[in-house]
Amino acid sequence: MARRPSPDQLLDALGAVHREPTSAASLELLRAALASSANVIVAKAARLIREHRIVGHEAGLAEAFIRFMKDPSKSDRGCEATTAIAHALVETDAVSDDAVRVYLAGVRHRQRDGPGGDSAAALRGYCGLGLLTARHRDAVVELTDLLADPEPAARVAAARGLAATGRDDLALLLRLKLRLGDASADVAAECMAGVLRLDPARSVELVAGFLNELDAEELAETAALALGESRLAAALGPLRAAFDRCRQASVRHAILLGAAMLRRPESIDWLLTLLESGPTPDALGALDALKVYRHDAGVEPRVRAAVAARDSAVVTEALQKSWVT
Asked: Which of 50, 139, 174, 294 is the most buried (most CB within 10 A)?
């Protein structure tokens, strides 16, 4: 009778999955790994399933998850395996009964393994997103609760999930969260992106209001980038107005980058005007923001023409250093 591989042997063997992730040998190896009692092995197997989007392991993932949830502080410190399992199920769009069982078990799980705090925050977030993918009737309820979770990772996932619903009425939850404030810039960024996606007509003004947060530069920078990522034509006016008012260098830089991210002809024209005739700091900022167009055949020649027209040694040197292709 063949001896079962040791945990170390199994962990080393999993490296072969990268080469042929869907071969019979790899699939059997993943099944064996998911049955292991070692959380590091199960976590690695789950990550491989996620990275290569390998289907057919939902039952094995769910069985491993439930096994580790029996005494998680001892069997899965740091929620390493359970988080990797939930992430794998979400990334492979798993919606089976096995997957839903994992999502429901993990969405409210909290785990304190030591002084580091709650290690299950990301797990809760993935499970909330999983319930949404599975169209579970309680998905929005759980995501709403996660929006008030003590841990930023869970709140980020909640905001992302609510935005992914496509429902404009749920923009109100994200709007309220923005009005109440959040200590995490990442949470604010997700809420801003969400309201701009779900209810753009009424959200540009809301997000643009954060550009005026003189005592919260990070929040103002976050708002500038969110407006840029929205690609909305209505976002350029508030960005330009804030640029004229603002004196903080980091916020001004974020505003210029936001304008470039809009990828609209009028925003490019404004940046080129600053590059050609604006004060030197503004010209350098515009040049840096326009780097996203380095390989754009329609914009790159206009940038070089604007720099040539300006005839500034400082700006020309900056172009030569930062626009090397």
From this structure: 174
